[in-house]
Amino acid sequence: MEFSKRVLNMQASPIRKLIPYAEQAKKMGKTVLHLNIGQPDLETPKAFFDYIEKHNPEIISYTHSAGLIELREAFSKYYKDNNIPFTPEEIIVTNGGSEAIIFALGAIADPGDEIIVIEPFYANYKGFAEMINVKLVPVRALPETGYAVPSINEFEAVLSNRTKGIIFSNPSNPTGAVYSEEELKTIVEFAKKHDLYIISDEVYREFTFDGTKHISTMAFGEYNRTIVVDSISKRYSACGARVGVFATKNRELYNQVMKMAQSRLCPPMIAQLGTIGLLEMDKSYIESVYKEYDKRRLAVYEELSKIEGAVFEKPKGAFYVSVKLPVDNSEKFVKWLLTDFSIENTTVMVAPLNGFYATPNTGMQEIRIAYVLNSEKLRFATKILAEAVKVYNNGRVIS
Amino acid sequence: MEFSKRVLNMQASPIRKLIPYAEQAKKMGKTVLHLNIGQPDLETPKAFFDYIEKHNPEIISYTHSAGLIELREAFSKYYKDNNIPFTPEEIIVTNGGSEAIIFALGAIADPGDEIIVIEPFYANYKGFAEMINVKLVPVRALPETGYAVPSINEFEAVLSNRTKGIIFSNPSNPTGAVYSEEELKTIVEFAKKHDLYIISDEVYREFTFDGTKHISTMAFGEYNRTIVVDSISKRYSACGARVGVFATKNRELYNQVMKMAQSRLCPPMIAQLGTIGLLEMDKSYIESVYKEYDKRRLAVYEELSKIEGAVFEKPKGAFYVSVKLPVDNSEKFVKWLLTDFSIENTTVMVAPLNGFYATPNTGMQEIRIAYVLNSEKLRFATKILAEAVKVYNNGRVIS
């Protein structure tokens, strides 16, 4: 039996494909500190379950395909509190941010059409695009500039008559960059000039540090071309809830996307209820989470700074930092960490960054660290990494 | 701003597009009995919430992309109890049956490839296929034969070098037909002869009446070409949980689909937990639900039989019956029911069947009734329908 080219072309998740090595390490009795996946260790607020219990539905029925109106109202309030003027009628609740991205790509691009993406980018963009035969065309951000938005010339250079839009995440997964007003203007002006959509993935909106502030792409007023993708996964440590958002003020685009939303019926009802509980929580929750991530960020930064030859800037947002390491090949290095290295019988797992690029053989020395463990563990993990770089480079590598 | 052809070609849900007329009727003070959507009125078993409460997770984290192993084990046991030999490693838990169908189509067909479908069919197949640019090629089942599987010649007639598989639901939504061993053999032999995949949607497995028995397509042993699509939505009155299943014994196909599953991370965790509770329930639950639907089925059948000129067979499965009515245009008739007809200030909403066909202008006199209300309400609703047909046909129609 044959398979579709679409699925054959799809790569295995770059984050998940090294898991067998981690499992093997654990079998050998090693402790593995996981900094490879954006799964926070923080408890999900009880408000989630409390709301479900209070509203304990008799029938777990289909909801409106755009999501429960009470939930869309709660999201609308949340956005307005963040100076993003979405009404409930401009919001479609999705199966995580994942589905919001598929909806966005699907509504604006046909097979063979192109979407420009700032690389390195959230690796699953690739899978979503391949699923519906849309081509991602990369514009490269560099570790030497803290992964800043490339110049407009670089965007112009990859434009074609099949380009339909631009997608990026800000704050950035995997780099931890937070885009300035100037940088965002580059993107918005380019999109305006060539009449392109902007898919703005703002999942890490709350996590911007050192006095930087997240600016939503909505702030530029280009309402007809702007799509915001969002998710509660990281903000509330509720990755498994699968509640995301597709939002736009472009009414006709909204109606088109609703056709896709209707065919899959609705997002998960119980998690929708729980999310209302989360959104109704006091702001002090987000503040405490923010402080915790900031502490972790500084811990990782401090330890990373001790690695001679590592290229990176102090991360400003999300809970990631991408680093160019002085190693020959970061995927080989990450495997080696799992198979051949440990301190106090403990090793660390990070994500090789190559899988976050669309350009082949790029980011071969880079890794992504997700700071999703407490500061103490993070310091230890980063020290292991620092020591590992030294050992790996002293020729004591078993390949 | 322009939209993709893919989304422009997508039709609005044929079930949902008449909702504004129903809303208007309610505003005018009419009661509307909804037989238009497969949303059961039965309570979701408390076992769902009990299991969640008992296992009350601290973090709502990502699960395995194929679903929690405990859930896949519970599904495997359920399938084995139904003589369908799926192991946990052959099961991928999905966002409802919807996602399982998208995965199946996506893994076997590229843009422009063709999938044969027995029409009338579950209307959302169309949306899923359009989402990923796959072409549905219909073979028609007729109300006069109780919507039996067409002859092998009819399948042969639509075969092309781009045909990759066949999709159908059994028991059938929207017709209520249950396919015999002979009928299924037609499909399986055709698939074998031309090396096609079979996507067997068995969501209504438990609901077969009058001594008929559901035969899974897996019973024919064509393991490499058989994909089973399933869902807990109807069985447990849990449509909003969004828990479905993609299952196959074809290992390589499974691995290919896992790449799609990994990019969307995981199905909803809380609903996965609840589903374990549902699957662990005593069989007496399904038996009681079965009896209730059987009672309803007989009530609808009895009342429908009183409509002179209506063409249909006694439905044998699922909780639907499709009927050819002696009206000029069933969509017009359904609208008229909502805008111009009532008995005791009550009217009824059913689904025009045209939207369940891929062939244009087909099923123009047919409707689908979902028997998702109690017998008493159903009898009243069907009597309204019977009376409406008479009035509509006596020329007292306001168009």
From TrEMBL, chains A, B:
Q: Which cofactor does it need?
A: pyridoxal 5'-phosphate
Q: Which GO terms describe its molecular function?
A: pyridoxal phosphate binding; transaminase activity
Q: What is its EC number?
A: 2.6.1.-
InterPro entries (UniProt xref): Aminotransferase_I/II_large, AspAT/PAT-like, NHTrfase_class1_PyrdxlP-BS, PyrdxlP-dep_Trfase, PyrdxlP-dep_Trfase_major, PyrdxlP-dep_Trfase_small
**CDD domains linked:** AAT_like
Its GO biological process annotations read: amino acid metabolic process
Any keyword tRNA processing?
A: no
- One Pfam entry for this protein is Aminotran_1_2
Which positions make up the signal peptide?
A: none
Q: Which UniProt keywords apply?
A: Aminotransferase, Pyridoxal phosphate, Transferase
PROSITE patterns found in the cross-reference section: AA_TRANSFER_CLASS_1
Residues in Aminotransferase class I/classII large domain copies: 31-379
The similarity annotation says: Belongs to the class-I pyridoxal-phosphate-dependent aminotransferase family.
What's the protein name?
Answer: Aminotransferase
The organism of origin for this protein: Marinitoga hydrogenitolerans (strain DSM 16785 / JCM 12826 / AT1271)
